[in-house]
Amino acid sequence: MAPCLPSAQLDGDVLRGLDEKALRLSTTRSWVDGGKAMASLRFVEITEPDLRLQESYRRLPQDPAIVVAAGRLAAENALPW
Q: What's the sign of the alpha-carbon dihedral 24, 11, 29, 3?
């Protein structure tokens, strides 16, 4: 059986906003809220790898010589625009 997770508590302003959006879209608060939840999950899915990469560089910074060499290589091979 899956663990029971606490539900989110929404204040009055948030609920009113959901209700207004649902009314404009001719749908329900649950549908709007579910869409926002899915968008939040997608945002985390997209940004999590980048955040992990940033954290890895904080733990083990890149060698400055590699950064200089990569910059030089990029400059030498840049396409003329």
A: positive
